Amino acid sequence: MRTDRRDFLRFSLAGSSMVALTGAIPNFLGHTAAQSPQAQQAGARDTILVVVQLTGGNDGLNTVIPHSDPNYARLRPTLRIQNFLRVNDTIGLHPSLTGMQSLLQDNAMCIVQGVGYPNPSQSHFRSMDIWHAAATTDVLNEGWVGRALRHIPAATSFHLANPNEAAPLALTGAPSRVPSIGTLDDFTQRLQAASAPDRRQQRDLLDSVSRPGNPQSSMLDFVQRTAVQTYASSQRLAQIGRDYQPRVPYPTTALGNHLKLAAQLIDAGLGARLFYVTHDGFDTHAAQLPAHANLLRDVSEAITAFYRDMAARGQGNRVLIMTFSEFGRRGHENGSQGTDHGSGAPMFLVGGRVRSGLVGDHPGLVNLDQGNLPHRIDFRQVYATVLDQWLGVPSRQVLGQAYDHVNVLRGA
Amino acid sequence: MNQNPQPIDPRWAWERYRPSDDAPWDLRKAGHLYRRATFGASLDELQTAVREGPDRTIAGLLQGRTDAQADELWATMSRTIAANNVGPDGANNGGQISSLWLYRMLYSAHPLREKLTLFWHNHFATSNIKVRSAGYMLGQYELMRRNAQGSFRTLLVDMSRDPAMMVWLDTTQSQRNQPNENYARELMELFSLGVTNAGRPGQRNYTEDDVRQAARAFTGLRLDNGQAVFREAQHDNGEKTVLTQRDRWRPDDVVRICLEQESTPYFIVRKLFRFLVSDSLAPTPELMEPLATEFRRDYDFGALVERVLRSNLFFSSHAYRTKIKAPVDFLLGIVRGLDGHRAAAAGQGGLGTVELSRTLEGLGQRLFYPPSVAGWEGGRAWLNGQTFLLRQNLALALTSTTDTRFGRRLDPAPFLRRQNAGTNEQKVDLLLRLFLQGDVPAASRTRLLDYAASAERQTYPVFWTADDAANHRMRTLCHLVLCLPEFQLD
After folding, report:
1. pTM attached to this predicted model
2. Residue predicted with more confidence, B150 or A156
3. Which residues in chain B touch residue A220, judged by CB atoms under 8 angstroms apart?
4. Domains parsed from chain A with CATH numbers
5. Contact check, Cβ <8 Å, B371/A219
6. Strand B245-247 to strand B240-242: parallel, antiparallel, or no bridges (unpaired)?
């Protein structure tokens, strides 16, 4: 087996066709052939999940607005949103969410209301860990996405990271380290070349010195094979970066760039199925109105562009984008035109196969617990639904127990 | 893949290596020794080692040098970081301890000690992701460093009451009427016996009942103001049967029982074998037997390390380049090779170890944050497409002038000038000697020479001086040498 493989390598290299060596799918991330799962097989559908984390605690009450509730105006004397986008007689969306409103009209967006967990923590750190680990035990050191990846080890996954952003807890526990990447440049073999011919010469040299040729040393052979595959994949990804043209314009924000990168990687056919991206700044303790409007616009524009781009490529039914935040914010505003840490809040699910519209009732503003909105749906119910019905991963094994599903996906 | 179809003679393997015509002491062997026993060497260090011979060189590495000023600096820095342990909202300053240790590895006057401390860190793999205390993590580091060349027995006994370990494996959560089995299990599975008998493959070393009974013995250990204390009232004082021995066992008794098992010396010796000798050569019971027999006598780890480093097998082709460099070895091999540590000591500005330790995270080895209690998998798992590319790009960042992330760069151009490398041949050979002891296929050397020659003829941007162009060529050559596949091998 091993000899055959080496012979194959030699054969391919003799033809000097570096790309032929790696076949249709570059073996870029250490997986042996990230095979595309069969659509029929349960648990192996070729679906894609993009988790968008809104860091800092998104003000759910000003995102999905109970506009007809008199308590809303009472709790939010200065922060009340009056020019909301109407969803129905009782609920409206923040006016920054025009893109998402259009998705709602196109049957591609689901709003899950009042999501949280019992005895909520109002520490950013602790509550974020709880959402990442999908558990409320004292010690949390493994993430739900990482655990899910153990069941789909061939699924390539990416943490779309801001500069120096550490890998999130949610991704720990995966069978192989989930790479953090910021731009397609991270895949680029960098050289210090004085000119284009110089670059070409250096590349040729590296290709040439990396050719497997010494079957005596299994370790060297391994490094050489890794090198050859990496150089070929790197060039291919650079080509993809040049070839890829978004079908709709993306906003030039960090989140927009990250989701565009996700689209490029999906388009590249790398077998990528899981993406994790964060968008920070939601901790709006003061002067919330303008800041929150910008944040929600960023989220809405980026997600809408990504979904529409994927849909235009015929991939709309393969993608599911899920947003969450570590908590919502306090029902009543504080004295600095801001809001303090709260609990339950809505989640958004976007994709061609979501059950569009509102799921769950608004938590209401009457029986607040020390000013905090109650939750009606445990976030792990949403995770369980996504795991079982979307990724085809047994949620009980990932979450440690069974959770009732929520009705957020069509044809599930 | 063993190059030698005949089994290795265990007696020969662990006998002292004596230079001979068949196995001469040369630059290649000095480079091998410095890669495995330290974090890499400069050409001066390698040439001194060749002159002094293996015995004196190894003695020097085992003993190290003392550097009171550096120790004092370390004490101040670690105290400061431990005091600023936890930031607002529970976020902790974990990154600082990673870069602090990297700093010590880089500048240490006793690199073997740091390397062996890293071995123990991987063995007792404790992560600050759960411990969340720089002070505890640094405390465990000091415990491992203190015993790095000492008694494994002492280390294992003290580890049971190490605060970081007690948090990591839940000793602090263990109740008398509800013992937590985490530490007892890992003590047997990962720290001493191993699951199956390393001396007799296939035989299980302990039962689930052994774990449960041993867990009872560890009840009563608590942390009080950052110190381990033993609380009689919270200890299960009943009789326990652990690995067939029955009495009212306490924590130290269980550790003693584990150390008495036949498998334990084999388990540790195998791990050290993989760390120092080879990723690919199988540590068969026959091959391990001479070392295990000696090690079990009084668990003198320093003596074990010395025997391995001085052995025939260590300097044979079975060991040479049969490991993949760990990220710290890859990184520091470049830095120490180009005298990055000396330049800083001479007041020429230091490299930023904060950024460097972040880079290590990308390469898969964040110090004080092993991926699980089983430690880093190592070997081939270090390299995949992404980490390979990151390594090549890191080599570029360290040696080019365009990337300023790491503060002062390592500039290979002045190094080559200092060594009076005038011709392309001299430059290429010097870089190959420094980083690969000249041991590369002739074809690779020819390619480098061809490149150097054609680079001289190429057109450079008009605003470059002749010096700019010459420096650029030297840096490029250095980067290409660091990109040779052989440089990934340890």
Report:
1. 0.75
2. B150
3. 321, 485-486, 489
4. 41-193+254-399 (3.40.720.10)
5. no
6. antiparallel
